[in-house]
Design brief:
- 43% of the residues lie in helices and 19% in strands.
- It is an alpha/beta fold.
- It folds into two domains: 4-219, Spore Coat Polysaccharide Biosynthesis Protein SpsA, Chain A (Alpha-Beta Complex), CATH 3.90.550; 223-304, no CATH class.
- Helix 2 (46-56) links the parallel strand 2 and strand 3 (63-67).
- Helix 6 (189-199) packs parallel to helix 7.
- 41% of the residues are buried.
Length: 309
């Protein structure tokens, strides 16, 4: 029998967490579910307070919260995994972010994809909702577009825990702390884990019907944030490459792409007067610079700052 534990990491986003939990309460599902929230804010503990409040009000699912005092996304995810796998009958661990809301059919679509394609890891579609009007130049930016693949089915890799379902057996096979805590505030520990799973022979699938909606705050719809997100992605991609291949092999393999991205980004930005296109093209340059930083061992801790509420 399928038994899912849903893990939600949260930090300083009580409104977002409540939105997520309210959406989970509205699921149309035939599967038993338990909710586990990990609060990564030792001082304010707003996530703990949200869970305590809704639990006393008669929440639909069994729910509890734990406190992870030391900051860091992989630390929180490892705590969630350890707690979830403590359930002897758990078959799958799902994860959502605290700025996402699930559609009513989300859980059944995820489990259905796992069973249909015998997948150890299933990723799902992420729509975007803005909490304020978006400037015209920013609207077409790829980072603000829905994360979709066009169809459901087996895929080579799922690279994010922002809407994922993982077989408990696959998580157990990756050790006691599957998320690399050296990437505490950089991001990228989810992609590193899933690339390790891929190399270990685990199977991946995608469900276009397992839809969640991410709420994007206005603080992320800025030129600086969009460019620095590209930089961070380039950096963490190289951190993952270095983990698997070592610095020298990663450098040899990525140098042509780094040079190509830097050249096309810089030249492309100079050749347009359109602000939106210029920022997208500069994004290639920033991503290339991030790759250089990742190869050199520099860490940009994007997740030290929390966006949204």
């Amino acid at each position: 029998m399928t038994k899912v534990v849903l893990g939600i990491a949260t930090c300083n986003r009580p409104q977002g967490l409540l939105r997520t939990l309210e959406s989970i309460a509205q699921l149309d599902t035939r599967f038993p579910l338990e909710i586990l929230v990990a609060d990564n804010d030792a001082s304010r503990q707003e996530g703990m307070a949200v869970v305590e409040r809704i639990a006393t009000q008669g929440y639909r699912w069994p729910i509890r919260a734990i406190l992870v005092a030391e900051r860091g996304i992989p630390r929180v995810r490892n705590a969630l995994v350890a707690q979830a796998l403590g359930h002897p009958d758990v078959t799958h661990v799902a994860m959502l972010d605290d700025d996402e809301a699930a559609s009513p059919g989300w859980l059944d679509a995820m489990v259905g994809a796992a069973l249909q394609w015998h997948a150890d890891v299933v990723g799902g579609a992420v729509l975007r909702e803005m909490d304020a009007p978006v400037p015209g130049w920013a609207a077409p930016h790829p980072l603000l577009q829905p994360k979709m693949r066009g169809k459901s089915g087996p895929v080579e890799l799922v690279d994010s825990t922002a809407n994922v379902l993982i077989a408990a057996s696959a998580l157990r096979a990756m050790g006691d702390a599957p998320f690399d805590e050296r990437m505490a505030l950089t991001g990228g520990s989810d992609k590193q884990l899933f690339s390790r799973m891929q190399r270990a022979g685990h199977r991946f699938a995608w469900s276009e019907d397992a839809v969640v909606t991410e709420l994007i705050p206005a603080s992320r719809v800025t030129q600086k944030w969009l460019l620095m997100r590209g930089y961070r992605i380039g950096m963490t991609d190289m951190m993952v490459e270095r983990f698997h291949k070592g610095r020298l092999r990663a450098l040899v393999g990525e140098t042509p792409r780094i040079l190509g991205g830097a050249a096309s980004g810089a030249l492309g930005a100079l050749l347009t007067l359109d602000r939106g296109k210029r920022i997208q093209r500069l994004g290639r340059l920033y991503r290339a610079a991030g790759k250089v930083a990742g190869l050199a061992g520099f860490h940009y801790e994007e997740y030290r700052k929390v966006h949204g509420a």
